[in-house]
Amino acid sequence: MTLLPLPKTTKPFAIACSLLITACTSDLSNTKPVNEFIRAMASNHQFDENELDELFQSAEIKDDILKKMTAPAEGLPWHRYRKIFMTEARINGGVKFWKENAAALAEAEQRYGVPAEIIVAIIGVETLYGQRTGNYRVLDALSTLAFAYPPRSPFFRSELENFLLLCREEQLNPLEPTGSYAGAMGIPQFMPSSFRTYSVDFDNDGRRDIWHNKADVIASIANYFVQHHWQTGQAIAVPLKATGTTYKTALNDNLKPNLRLATLESLNLKISVPLALDTKVKILELKQEQGEELWAVLDNFYCLTRYNHSPLYAMAVYQLSQSILNKKGSFP
Question: Among 109, 117, 126, 159, which one carries the catalytic annotation?
Fold first, then answer.
């Protein structure tokens, strides 16, 4: 669940503010924002103030996290972004993960209606099938962004609140869980609020373990998409062919499909696969090295963008899922 970049006009200000605050608050204990946060946790959730004060004495501000927040991969053009994920190693790794976890994937697909290849591709894009889950302590990542990154501090303070709550609920030591520079956790890279809302104890062992338990990971991802209105058996994306550039008048940043199929004809667009007449689509234009690649994306594509709001991310997941599915039958 990689975070999107800030608008370009705000980045220099964000960097300057972050570095300035960081220089003054490398020690988080006894700072006003942290003390206010501790008091709120005690008042709203009955945490012990002394215990939280001791915890934050161990938390560390990480300068490199602030730098990484300004340059996520979603800022790349499609032809460069795609190359990160559409590799033989990642496709083969997806088939291997599928074969090793076939029973859990089949059960999750039957229960939730989310295709196994989509679940596998999410795991492949997020953490290379659990190989790259992040080495930052979640407490450090969230504290850095909650108290030293003004542009998104309200969001990350909320995630820090959810993190402490989930540690209490799951009986975890807050100093132990690790994740990404943005505080995304485990194999599926759930933010703490997503963990508390969508994670699943699929094998009924009394814990929702998204760090080590592949069954819990698989079911949690499937549940996430179901709760975001995944439509079982429906298409995700269909290639388009254009005559001329009239279609550009329909391009916008709104990811929700809102165009009727009849509109495509008026824009001189031809769809490659028949769809139901009442289907709504969005036109997606992706930058290739030579020209543009056009797609009609549907509600399930929009559902993928609820995991990460970048259309590049959703298209990478979709194309990786199809490559894994196609290769699965011939893989040794």
Answer: 126
Question: What's the CATH code of the domain at 65?
Answer: 1.10.8.350
Mean pLDDT of the chain: 91
What is the distance between the alpha carbons of residues 188 and 186, in angstroms, rounded to a whole number?
6
The total number of structural domains that make up the chain: 2
- C-alpha 278/C-alpha 140 separation (Å) is 48
Per-residue model confidence (pLDDT) at position 17 = 43
Q: Based on the domain organization, do 172 and 254 belong to the same domain?
A: no
Residue 195 forms part of a structural domain? no
Residues 35 and 179 in one domain: yes
293 three-class SS: strand
126 is catalytic: yes
Tell me the Cα Rg of the chain.
21
Q: What is the pLDDT of residues 21-59, one digit of tens each?
A: 444 445 677 789 999 999 999 999 999 999 999 999 999
**Helix (DSSP H) and strand (DSSP E) numbers for the chain:** 15, 7
Does residue 266 lie within any of the structural domains? yes
Is the separation of the CB atoms in 283 and 240 below 8 Å? Answer: yes
Do the Cβ atoms of 191 and 168 come closer than 8 Å? no
What is the pTM (predicted TM-score) of this model?
A: 0.89
- Tell me the β-bridge partners of 259: 281
